[in-house]
Amino acid sequence: MDNMKKLANGIEMPRLGLGVWRVEENDAANSVRWAIDSGYHLIDTAAVYKNEKGVGEGIRQSGMKRENLFITTKLWNADQGYDSAHRAFNGSLERLGLEYVDLYLIHWPVEGKFNDSWRAMEEIYESGRAKAIGVSNFHRHHIEKLMTTAKIKPMVDQIELHPTLTQVDLRDYLEKEGIAVEAWSPLGQGKILQKPTLTEIGKKYNKSAAQVIIRWHLQSNTIVIPKSVHEKRIKENFDVFDFELNAEEMQQIDGLNINERLGANPDNFDF
């Protein structure tokens, strides 16, 4: 399996990266540096995580050439709208200390604002300061509404996705539309790591439940960004390219779905 995913505009995005949600600014630089040293090229942050500076610091400390990295950040809800999206993006670039990001996402579908935000993002994309643009937490109807005014279709939708929330209908729709699926909370925030199905499969391959889940994401054609602040775990999460789940194991993991959200429903959030 190729560990790169080609987006609709031809850009190649790594399928496995590091997420830094709830990572303190001080810890972000270390986590990012360890990840890059371990082979990661995709780093996913957001303005609201308040750790973009730390992420930028980790990138610089790693010594990795900028063109070999894929950096994502996101437009926060309070900054949505045409002018404020432009301002917010400039702020993110400044904090990261970068001249461009590889992917810029609308973090949540703020009603009445996301179409205007998208107009700004299209301009940012056309300027070359974001190599790709997309959305996060958008249901199908949000994307359809966005497309009533959009000139450019989102290239990625980053959604909550793990074995107990498989979002099959949404994934099928995104696949059909040529929009790449990216999973946040891919390990179910650790709440599903004790499930016997996962631990049993792990024993067979001498892998942890987390590694089994990451492999399941990869084989499901999902981009996946597990988060950790521990060097050993960061390395372990990347060590998933030397085994393959069979069709029956994939089905067993699919079968864990109970449509259980750990985060907010994009139709009903108040932040």
CATH architecture: Alpha-Beta Barrel
Largest β sheet strand count, sense and barrel closure: 8 strands, parallel
Structural class: alpha/beta
* Order of neighbouring strands in the sheet with most strands: 3-4-5-6-7-8-9-10
Strand residues, percent: 5-15%
What is the helix/strand order? EEEHEHEHEHEHEHEHHEHH
- Based on CA atoms alone, the radius of gyration comes out at 18 Å
Task: State the CATH topology.
Answer: TIM Barrel
**What is the molecular shape?**
globular
State the low-pLDDT regions, or none.
none
Distance between the termini: 38 Å
How many DSSP E strands?
A: 10
In CATH, the homologous superfamily goes by the name NADP-dependent oxidoreductase domain
Q: Average pLDDT, to the nearest integer?
A: 97
Tally of domains: 1
> Helical proportion?
25-40%
Tally of helical segments: 10
**The CATH top-level class label:** Alpha Beta
Q: What's the short version?
A:
With 271 residues, the protein is of the alpha/beta class.
3D architecture notes:
By secondary structure, the protein is of the alpha/beta class. The protein has one domain (4-190, 218-232): TIM Barrel, CATH 3.20.20.100. Helices cover 39% and strands 14% of the residues. An 8-stranded parallel sheet has the order 3-4-5-6-7-8-9-10. Strands 1-2 form a two-stranded antiparallel sheet. The chain is globular and about 55 Å long. The mean pLDDT is 97.
